[in-house]
Write a structure and sequence with these properties.
The protein is built from 6 helices and 4 strands. By secondary structure, the chain is mainly alpha-helical. It has a two-stranded antiparallel ribbon. A two-stranded antiparallel sheet has the order 3-4. A hairpin with a 3-residue loop joins strand 1 and strand 2. The chain is globular.
């Protein structure tokens, strides 16, 4: 049982952190009487920024790298070996920074509460799905990479939720009574 909380030996994954952050933020928003989706929209860009910065820990630890590559930016290291590998930490870090800047820009244009959060989950999932396909240390369940499966699941579910929220907003807008006039 003590192995469960022994984070020095690995076992940490971003999905658990995201789920934990969502649960804690939800409880916080409810206690403080803040709109949950409004809080999620506010925090999502900063969460992806933190993820982009945090990926550099993988570089320092020489972990979470990809398969061998002949690309000029392939990396090697004492723990990696002499053959260059994909620097997947770098790919994900750059993707996360791009998503951060997009979300900061987009949140001024959002149509409904929750839209920035849903886009964060969708865009992160797309990037993670691609990058996970390059990694050599994926957790597997048979022939399925767990992180790729979860990324695809997040993309699908959050896309559905985004469409539903947008559709409800459009329906509410169309049914709003603008006013009456005798003319």
């Amino acid at each position: 049982p003590l192995d469960i909380i022994d984070t020095r030996r690995g076992g940490l994954a971003i999905y658990g952190a995201i789920i934990g952050a969502v649960v804690v933020a939800y409880i916080f928003a409810k206690k403080r009487k803040i709109g949950v989706l409004k809080l999620f929209d506010f925090g999502s860009p900063y969460l992806i920024l933190a993820q982009g910065i945090g990926r550099w820990g993988n570089f320092i630890n020489q972990e979470a790298y990809g398969t061998t590559t002949s690309l000029p930016w392939g990396m090697t290291g004492s723990d990696i070996g002499p053959d260059p590998v994909h620097p997947t930490f770098l790919y994900e870090s750059l993707w996360d920074f791009a998503v951060f800047f997009f979300l900061i820009w987009y949140r001024k244009k959002k149509k409904v509460e929750g839209e920035v959060f849903f886009l964060y989950m969708i865009l992160y999932g797309i990037g993670r799905f691609w990058i996970e396909g390059l990694r050599s240390d994926s957790l597997m369940l048979g022939n399925i990479r767990i992180s790729q499966f979860l990324a695809a699941l997040f993309v699908i579910l959050m896309s559905i939720l985004l469409v539903i929220r947008r559709k409800k907003q459009l329906e509410a807008y169309e049914t709003d009574e603008i006013g009456t006039s005798n003319y």
